[in-house]
Amino acid sequence: MAKGLDVGTSFIVLAKDSAQNTTTDPNAVGRVEYRDFRDAYFIIKPTTPVAVKMIEKGLHGKVFVKDADGTFIILGQDAIEKAVERNSSVQRPMYRGVVNAKEKEAKRVLAFILQEVAGHAETAQEKLVFCIPAQPVDQEDTDFDVGYHEDVIKAILAERGYQTRAINEAEAICYSELEHDDYTGVALSCGAGMVNCCVMLNGEPTVTFSTTKSGDWIDRMTAVALGEPDSVVQAEKEHGEFTIGKPNENPILSAVCSYYERLIDYTTKQLAAAMTNHKLLPKFKSPLPVVIAGGTSQAKGFVKLFQQKLTENSFPLPVKEVRHASDPLHAVARGCLIAAKIL
Q1: In 3-state terms, what secondary structure has residue 126?
Q2: pLDDT, tens only, 111-156
Q3: Fewest beta carbons less than 10 Å away: which of 61, 115, 291, 335?
């Protein structure tokens, strides 16, 4: 058996064939199982021995780790719920697509989460393909180290018996979504930390890069503007009703819409600038499909405005259509699974 793993800033998603899948076709549709887990944690430090016991009882049924000193590290969606309850914000082991160098618990927490999601290999040297981000074109960041991040993930998964390989995040979307386009087109992964881009020609990735603003940037800017914790903004954004470009009476969602518009304008300008006169960009004979995936892209009106801004900001490639991935939240994991099965 092979597995695909989307190691995202906000979600970690495992994809594997369901028990009913008997086909050997790596592009089999409708027979894939997914396991989603929030890439987040929240720390509670009890002040008394009695509090340790009471908190542990209160966390019954939730995913957490208890340290020897009585500190509780709550993981996943449970962490977000606790943060919102306490009017605070969660921490993440990932930042802009890579292991967060500023969080001392990052590696340890990420190992806990990967164990929760992927477990141990079910067969000897089971193949697992996971995604990594591309280098950003809009920022020189000394904290952004894809090589170290890749090594950390490989080491964690190797301890659990997996034989691993890393591929670009947007490249995985190409494998998942461009089968009927001769694996030729542009794929964009709009996650929490970054927007990753891959230009593919007949199955070969020719240009890959990323930009550094995405869903987390929207949350942070809205939180700063309104004086709210990031987790409160995130929860409101994910569960509230809004459409980009339309008025909203909710002050948080109104600000979220405004920053969505700014994000899309910024991203399409960066895409156009990065691709214009790029030496490795093929000379395409026909207009290309642009496929968009990722949790940030799920907002109503996102794809429509993205297509409009590509035109306004002089995107240098001919565009056939801009479409949403068939399953925006799972497209990366599914693409990684396809790659793992081929390998």
Answers
A1: strand
A2: 989 999 999 989 888 999 999 999 899 876 666 778 888 999 999 9
A3: 61
| Dihedral, CA of residue 238, residue 216, residue 306 and residue 187, to nearest 10 | -100
d(CA 332, CA 34): 11
The per-residue DSSP string of 3-60 comes to EEEEE-SSEEEEEEE-TT-----TT--S-EEEEEEE--EEEE--SSHHHHHHHHHHTT
Chain Cα centroid distance, residue 333: 10
pLDDT given for residue 102 in this prediction? 77
Beta-strand runs (E) in the chain: 3-7, 11-17, 32-38, 41-44, 64-66, 72-75, 94-95, 98-99, 126-132, 162-168, 185-190, 195-201, 204-211, 288-293, 319-324
List 74's β-bridge partners, or say none. 42, 64
pLDDT in tens, 60-82: 888 888 888 888 899 988 888 88
The topology (CATH level 3) of 180-324 is Nucleotidyltransferase; domain 5 (3.30.420)
Phi, psi values for residue 106, rounded to 5°: -55, -50
For helices 302-312 and 251-275, give the axis angle rounded to 10 degrees.
Answer: 40
Lookup: tokens for 280: 């490795």
Per domain, the residue ranges of the chain are: 180-324
pLDDT digits (tens, 9 = 90+) for 249-305: 999 999 999 999 999 999 999 999 999 989 898 889 899 999 999 999 999 999 999
pLDDT at 21: 59
Average pLDDT, the chain: 90
**Residue 241: how many CA atoms within 13 Å on its side-chain side?**
1
pLDDT at 105 over 90: no
How does residue 52 score in pLDDT terms, banded at 50, 70 and 90?
A: confident
CA distance 331 to 175: 9
**Burial degree of 325 (CB within 10 A; 0-12, 13-18, 19+):** buried
Tokens 């109104």 sit on residue:
254
The rounded distance, in Å, linking the Cα atoms of 271 and 202 is: 21
> Do residues 316 and 276 make contact, with C-beta atoms less than 8 angstroms apart?
yes
Residue in 343, 6, 341 with CA at minimum distance from that of residue 172: 6
